Fold this sequence. Notes:
By secondary structure, the protein is α/β, with parallel strands linked by helices. It has helices at about 5-20, 45-55, 60-70, 90-105, 135-155, 170-180, 195-215, 215-230, 235-260, 280-285, 325-340, 355-365, 405-420, 425-445, 460, 470-485, 500-510, 515-525, 525-545, 555-580, and strands at about 35, 40-45, 75-80, 85-90, 120-125, 160, 290-295, 295-300, 315-320, 345-350, 375-380, 385, 455. Among the domains are: about 5-90, 2-Layer Sandwich (Gyrase A, domain 2); about 410-580, Orthogonal Bundle (Isoleucyl-tRNA Synthetase, Domain 1). The protein is built from 20 helices and 13 strands. The model has no long low-confidence stretch (mean pLDDT about 95). Bound molecules: arginine (ARG). One of its GO terms (molecular function) is ligase activity. Keywords: Aminoacyl-tRNA synthetase, ATP-binding, Cytoplasm, Ligase, Nucleotide-binding, Protein biosynthesis.
Amino acid sequence: MASVTSLTAHVHQRLADALSAALPAADADVDPLLRRSDRADFQANGILALAKKAKANPRELASGVVERVVTGDVIKDIEVSGPGFLNITITDKAIVENLAQRATDPVARLGVPFAENPGTTVIDYAQPNVAKEMHVGHLRSAVIGDSVVKILEFVGETVVRRHHIGDWGTQFGMLIQYLIEHPHELDHEESEVSGEEAMSNLNRLYKASRTLFDADEAFKTRARRRVVDLQAGDPETLALWQKFVDESKIYFFSVFDKLDMEIQDPDIVGESGYNDMLDETCRLLEESGVAVRSEGALCVFFDDIKGPDGNPVPLIVKKSDGGYGYAATDLSAIRDRVFNLKANTLLYVVDARQSLHFRMVFETARRAGWLNGDTKAVQLAFGTVLGKDGRPFKTREGETVRLVDLLDEAIERASAVVREKAQDLSEQEIAERGAQVGIGAVKYADLSTSASRDYKFDLDQMVSLNGDTSVYLQYAYARIQSILRKAGSTEPAAHPELELADAERALGLHIDRFAETLAEAAAEYAPHKLTAYLYQLASLYTSFYDKCPVLKADTPAQVENRLFLCDITAKTLHQGMALLGIRTPERL
Ligand code: ARG
């Protein structure tokens, strides 16, 4: 079913048509460069450049466009300004009519079209490490990744999720050997332990085995031999390794659950998942000459990547002892994602501190021909989470902050805010809303700065009711729902025949920009464009509500039309927040 396109898209098309007609020699798609404007509703800035290219007079070309544009129904006014800009004003009727169509659109696309040429994106995000506590860095990958997945899917992209967990490596030798010598330590029914207990079991084993490893030479030797057994695929060793993975998953899922995030087990394909490919990956790289032997290791060199001493820093795909590292796994994962999963885009939501690794891995894959013009690889590199003091976030004792503690604190703070404002909420509702507001606050703070930037983790600011926070947006949504309840009106009808006040037009035109915003957010993997849009939506709604009485408007038709504007604002807020992974409770 074709969905309703935005008014902006419609106006754009009309101008593009008029422009092509006025400039018959031009290429097929001429872009009028339509932008929202303070002087009129829109300004078209594209004529100057087009005229220059066609060696035409820009003002004459602009007048030619004006003559060809039909006015009256959608476009109220169009006039030439300055050296060849066009100022365009839209009729009130067109604004309301377009919004009315989206209110009744059965597929609820809110004016957002599906991408014309969608592809397949494999996105690598939410990748914690087995037998280790999750920290704030894992939070960012999960939160940003989850939102990007939702935005891409909404515009029609096929998305394959990959959680590249750290489930392989030498540390497992120590853990497994310890478990062999202290059996039954992880024996229990999966349903018996909570995430918290699972993590504490793993911590206990980790500490105990570490102590033994450091103190006892014989154990150290046995642990090292165990790594070889693991890599060789010895069944007993693998079975014990699996116990650690399973125990960790209990913990991961409890954290993702707290984060209100759906992670599917089949999408968890950790480093170990590429084991069978490692040999071949190395062979292909060596045979093609992309990788060379250097001091016993298999390496790839880059002209522009050098260490502080001026010597080249290679990517090591196979160590001199024959072991494979992080790079071999990532290179194998690329082959899997390109050739088996048929990805057009590989997206990695990973800490900016791993940027050099990905630069080298992508370049290696390009040289090997695994990445080419048809497939692009992008690291959506995110910055560091800082404490209030502007330094990397640590506990007072200087330790990394446990993600779970942080989330619990956010929920606690949010519950206090909810409780204070709550009028008719039960204790259970306060707890439920507290979680939705607290987790929303954490996600929103993360998503509302561009991913590449560091941001300060400041809970006071995050749960503030004033300002650019999720709580502010959640309250805006809940307030609208309360008005609609009070009016007893579920699907208020639009009245396109009415004249609009300035605040109504501003709100309506902003709602119309939802499609453009999402197109940008999807193309640039930039959820912060969506948060900025939603914040402005709530602000414009607030000024509309201040200036235009809703339930006490002059006529019943106006009451209904304003209720309609409230409703479509709420629907847009709700959808936008959902794409950020944030709930919008009906009552707060
Ligand atoms: N597990 C890694 C970490 O905690 C992140 C994995 C990123 N993804 C990848 N394909 N290398 O730092």
